[in-house]
Write a structure and sequence with these properties.
Elements: H1 9-22, H2 32-49, E1 61-69, H3 70-73, H4 79-83, E2 90-99, H5 111-131, H6 136-146, E3 162-166, E4 169-176, H7 184-198, E5 206-210, E6 219-223, H8 231-240, H9 248-253, H10 255-262, H11 266-269, H12 277-291, E7 300-301, H13 314-326, E8 330-335, E9 338-343, H14 348-357
Parallel strand pairs: 1-5
Antiparallel strand pairs: 1-2, 2-4, 3-4, 3-6, 7-9, 8-9
């Protein structure tokens, strides 16, 4: 339960006015404490809004962007690191009103909260690409226009996203490869990008703020998302391929390229070498979904479970998919005119054991077994 006073529209207007009065991303240090208090109030209210059937209609769900010094974010752990020169670059930070546990547990947040985070990731990748280009506003417009074209090659695409926390809120970070004096532009461009990235999320109204980096002091424990198949990695891959991480259609469009980038052990697990056809189908289905990070926030049409199977195997793949649902390894989600499924985060151990070693968990009945 969140305090009623966090839903007062006046508080949101106060942040807007206070940020504008202070000078936006260039606000002086003496204004940081006041702005931080208002931002924390917005995050608290946003968390409450995300629990509603329609989020942000009374008060838009707030997210925040800011450019922060990387050495300040990641204090060196060893004496060798402490003696090394600091890197001359900043990181673009995004703060979302969702549980920081998401960075280890994809099931820690609901679907709408996840899509909000996915939109943040897309905004960060787009803003940094534009910041690194000549003519930031024009570069941002061109990157949006380019999304209507073909995907960029997955070759040489690095996944740099790190996830941490500010208090109990999720913090995301990406390096800004420009001089520190220009890095605040990334926060302002991310706000513009977020308008587009979040616009299609059902029953959500959200608002992004560009803040001085010092207002976001206290971001800790930044590290890569835990697990090679974490949906945060999928979201970053989609964005770097020119797609929209909060748009399920865009995610599906780039599926093959994403699997090539971050697939979960396709070269070593080799479920296709399994001689039992039912077990082979189960392992392949789960492996593909895991490689796409479809652990709850992302889901797929049940008809797509047969993707990649030969014509005479497609009916078996659909049957196996239904049995995976019955066993609780997949969770079914009603959708408009469709039936979607996703991997059950609470059964991650059983799912990985089945993918990697062919261990059939109790409750899963496969044809011929």
């Amino acid at each position: 339960m969140y305090p009623e006073e966090s839903n007062r529209p006046a508080t949101r207007l106060t942040l807007d006015l206070a940020l504008a009065d202070a000078g936006g991303v260039h606000a002086p240090r003496e204004r940081f404490a006041g702005l931080r208090a208002l931002v924390l109030d917005e995050l608290l209210a946003g968390a409450g809004e995300l629990e509603r059937t329609r989020s942000g209609y009374a008060r838009p769900v707030a997210v925040a962007f800011g450019a922060v010094s990387e050495p300040a974010l990641s204090p060196p752990a060893s004496s060798a690191e402490r003696s090394a020169p600091s890197r001359d670059r900043d990181a673009l930070i995004a703060i979302a009103p969702v549980d920081q546990a998401l960075r280890a547990d994809p099931g820690a947040v609901g679907e709408r909260a996840w899509l909000l985070v996915a939109a943040l990731v897309g905004s960060m990748v787009e803003a940094i690409a534009a910041t690194s280009s000549v003519g930031h506003a024009g570069a941002l417009a061109r990157s949006r226009f380019a999304r209507g074209g073909s995907s960029r090659s997955s070759d040489a695409l690095a996944l740099d996203l790190r996830a941490g926390m500010m208090g109990n809120w999720l913090a995301l970070a990406l390096p800004v490869p420009v001089p520190a004096a220009d890095s605040s532009d990334a926060a302002e461009l991310a706000v513009l990008a977020f308008e587009d990235e979040s616009a299609g999320i059902d029953r959500l109204r959200a608002r992004a703020y560009a803040l001085p980096g010092g207002v976001l002091d206290g971001v800790t424990d930044l590290r890569a998302p835990i697990g090679d198949d974490h949906p945060l990695r999928t979201a970053e891959a989609v964005a770097r391929l020119g797609g929209r991480p909060a748009d399920e259609g865009s995610v599906s469009e780039h599926e093959d390229a994403i699997l090539a980038m971050i697939g979960t052990g396709i070269d070593t697990v080799r479920p296709h070498e399994e001689h039992d056809p039912s077990l082979r189908a189960a392992r392949r289905i789960l492996q593909r979904l895991a490689g796409m990070g479809k652990w709850g926030g992302y889901h797929t049409d049940v008809a797509h479970l047969a993707r990649g199977f030969a014509g005479n195997e497609r009916a078996l793949a659909i049957e196996i998919g239904e049995r995976l649902v019955d066993a609780g390894l997949l969770v079914a989600k009603p959708s408009v005119g469709q039936r979607h499924v996703f991997l059950n985060p609470r059964r991650a151990g059983d799912i990985h054991a089945l993918i990697e070693r062919g261990v059939v968990p109790v409750g899963l009945e496969l044809p011929g077994h």
